[in-house]
Amino acid sequence: MPLTSDEAVKKSETLADPMCPQSFRVESVLRETHDTFTLNLQPAGNAEMPRFEPGQFSMLYVFGVGELPISISGDPEQARRLAYTVRSVGPATQALVSLRPGDWVGVRGPYGKPWPLEAAHGKDVLIVAGGIGLAPLRPAIFHVLHNRDDYVRLIVLYGARSPGDLLFRKELNAWGRSADTLVLTTVDYGGVNWRGRVGVVTTLFRHLRLHPDRTVVLVCGPEIMMNYVVAELEQHRGVSAADIYLSMERNMKCAVGFCGHCQYGPYFICKDGPVFSYQQVRGLMSKHEL
Amino acid sequence: MESLEPILAQHSFFEGLDAEYLRVLVGCASNVRFAEGAYLFRTGEEAGHFYLIRQGRVALEIYAPQRPPIVVQTLEAGDILGWSWLIPPYRWRFDARAVEGTRAIALDGTCLRTKCEENHDLGYELLKRFVHITTQRLEATRLQLLDVYAPHV
């Protein structure tokens, strides 16, 4: 049964315990594609809004259904709102995207290591996203656009399954019109009426002239796609493994490095990640059954 | 009339190619244009050319009975289109449709095959370049086949 506003406020006052969710009210639910929605959440009452860094995630608790790790997809400079872009693929995500404005959600976090945006100061930032992987990268794109003088070029390569699966299409167009910014999109399967590009995300690299010595790459998408992307970057574009960062995904439960559900070799994804340099995880990514 | 030699020389596909070979290639090259919706070629037709796309976008399509054509890839400015001219029986294996008005340089395959037979060094240079493109497209097709963005619970 959903919490009342008073109950929600009371819950939000117990933040000291990392396992205790803070209550957030659903402000709006935006349909991005046929199966993907963005939830905008606000803290209950006058509760403090947690600050987050691009690349971090929260644990979202749908009361009575379950808790899910979801990356924050909103603008880090939005002081009173947390945005999460969720693809409905199972009962818990379906319950999450079925919430309506005014409903309550439990939020723990934000957690995890963010994208290393300071390490990219004075350099080109290359973002490579696949599918829903654009969501965790979106705050990094906002950050670069808000702090444009700190970076040189911003390049966004984005691949989706089909034209109907492309997320944030209006924003992609708007970002592409910004100074020193290049946005290229492609889809794996395009119908005959689609006038855009067809081909996997790695085919977009042929349109770029990279400066490998001054480029930091942020990659998020299905792990197999990331494998192809890093191979292209390292073997054909001369980018060093230390300059490539990936957001990894495993079954996160406690989100604070206690339970071990998200163990990945010597790391816990929730605490040591989700963002890793490729140098850190290269050996793990090629290990079967990890 | 505009010489095609500097255009070929600047194209990444011909990077590092001997000037002598470039002159041979120019002898087999011509400018072509295709209106939006026009087919550059269709499956089964004789593969008489390959194309350096200079402007526009081309969709490679596979015809499937009782359903719309399947677009497997698009190519655009800077891309090379077609290698069937190099491999017997020299027939196109797919359709190529101009998604928008497209300008290209067409290289005559029959002319090139003759030149390559006469000069195996030129033939080997071209083969190396086409094998590179074929490999890239094979890898891309493998990734496409994996359907990595499909939902899985």
Rg measurement of chain B, Å: 16 Å
- Helical content of chain B, roughly? 25-40%
Structural class by secondary-structure content of chain B: alpha+beta
Query: Assembly type of the shown chains?
Result: heterodimer
Spatial ordering of strands, largest sheet of chain B: 1-8-3-6
Describe this structure in words.
With 290 residues, chain A is an alpha/beta fold. Chain A is 21% helix and 28% strand. Chain A contains seven helices and 14 strands. In chain A, the strands form three sheets. In chain A, strands 4-3-6-1-2-5 form a six-stranded antiparallel β-sheet. The longest helix of chain A is centred in the last third of the chain and has 14 residues, at 223-236. The radius of gyration of chain A is 19 Å and the shape is globular. Chain B is of the alpha+beta class. Chain B contains four helices and eight strands; from the N terminus they run ααββββββββαα. Chain B has helices at residues 5-10, 19-26, 109-118, 120-146, and strands at 29-34, 39-41, 49-55, 57-62, 70-76, 80-81, 95-98, 102-108. Chain B has a four-stranded antiparallel β-sheet. A four-stranded antiparallel β-sheet of chain B has the order 2-7-4-5, with no helix packed on it. In chain B, helix 3 crosses helix 4.
